[in-house]
């Protein structure tokens, strides 16, 4: 019960204090999972990610998310499969509606800025905290 109250408090703090229209310009880009808080309150930190998400939103508030695998050459490998979505502002929340040939689901953006993206999966109630992806700097020059 404590964990549910904590999750609801987290959601209300993020959703009440921000204007969801302000999140939209920050969604585009390359994101990697930093931390996940599961619905039971358990936290998982992600110190290393071999996959990142590329998210693109159009002016019509539709878009897609694609999984990418960075490689050592600064480029990405992808399966080219995409999860298409539509964004809607509902009850002061920014919701993403996904639809694939296999499933449909809804996520709520709790916060989005230049460096962080916080998303609630409405099905399993897990909260995903993403950070902007930064490629590895493998320049090993010595002075």
UniProtKB/TrEMBL annotation:
| Entry keywords, A to Z | Signal
The signal peptide annotation in the UniProt record is 1-17
Q: What is this protein called?
A: Lipocalin-like domain-containing protein
Species for this entry: Psychroserpens luteus
